[in-house]
Amino acid sequence: MNCLYCDTAIALEMSWRNLLFPTVQPKLCESCDRKLLLIGEACCESCSRPLKNVAPKYIKENKCLDCIKWEQDPNWTNTLEKNISLFQYNDFLKEVVARFKFRGDYELAKIFSGELQRQLRTIEYEMLVPIPLSKERLLERGFNQSEALGQVAGIETDHVLERIHSERQSKKTRKQRLSQQQIFRFCGDKKQVFEKNILLIDDIYTTGITLRHAAKVLKEAGAGQVHAITLARG
Ligand SMILES: [Zn+2]
Ligand SMILES: [Zn+2]
Q1: % residues pLDDT > 90 (the chain)
Q2: What are the strands, taking DSSP E only, across the chain?
Q3: CA of 65 to the centre of ligand 2 (A)
Q4: Which residues, other chains included, contact 83 with Cβ-Cβ below 8 Å and sequence gap of 6+?
Q5: DSSP string over 164-201
Q6: Is pTM, for the whole model, over 0.85?
Q7: pLDDT tens-digit readout, 132-151
Q8: Minimal CA–CA distance to 128: which of 151, 150, 162, 157?
Q9: What residues contact residue 148 under an 8 Å CB cut-off, 6+ apart?
Q10: Does 22 score more than 70 pLDDT?
Q11: Where are the beta strands (DSSP E) in 42-183?
């Protein structure tokens, strides 16, 4: 077995314990594994932003200023309950995500499976919905990275959203994007989501606007609460 990231052979520790109780095969070598860091405790309750280097005046009741602003905006109050990010958005993670997403290395999604499965066991949800890509982007990339994360971890996902706006707009400012009416359309059966507790899955939470647009469409279709899980808080 070789490291999925750097291809170094992974030396498996041979012990009686491992022989008797084979654990999950490690996906990364020790040196890469040390760079994949969990986000830890001290982060915003609503969006998982690490609060370690945030000045106290920008934190209110364990929430970052961004989240407070979102909740104060009447357009977005109670749209997205919470985002849970798994890992620190450090150089290593950025590089892994770039390779996975932009260079199409599907296998790399396996690096995150263990932690994703572990977190999903602690979250109450009834349906896992990946953030969809536009048809052009999907064709270009070959797979949807949000769906791939669930797939390789053996977790079922439901496709009830469709992207009606291309991703090219991501270069625009936050304000421009906020003003845009819709990014997604509901394409499932409304009975399927009615009062359901839905968990969205995406790779990175950056401004939170994409997830909120998705959550809004789901709520308008009748969903109960909408939470999100992402690899990292950008
Ligand atoms: Zn490695
Ligand atoms: Zn926050």
Answers
A1: 76
A2: 59-60, 63-64, 82-87, 127-130, 161-163, 184-186, 198-205, 226-233
A3: 7
A4: 46, 47, 48, 205, 208, 211, 227, 228, 229, 230, 233
A5: -S-GGGGGS-HHHHHH---SEEE-S-HHHHTT--EEEE
A6: yes
A7: 999 999 998 999 999 999 99
A8: 157
A9: 100, 106, 109
A10: no
A11: 59-60, 63-64, 82-87, 127-130, 161-163
The tokens 């936050």 sit on which residue? 174
Q: Which of 181, 177, 182, 185 is nearest to 207 (CA)?
A: 177
Biggest CA–CA distance in the chain, Å, is 60
**Ligand 1 center–CA 91 separation, angstroms:** 14
Q: How do residues 35-93 score in pLDDT, each as one tens digit? A: 999 998 799 999 999 998 899 999 999 999 999 999 999 999 999 999 999 999 999 99
CA of 186 to the centre of ligand 2 (A): 26
Residue 43 DSSP symbol: B
Ligand 1 centroid–CA 96 distance in Å is 11
Residue 232 DSSP SS3: strand
Ligand 1 centroid to 53 CA: how many Å? Answer: 29
**Mean pLDDT for the chain overall:** 90
Structure tokens at 55: 């000045």
**Count of all residues that appear for the chain in the document:** 234
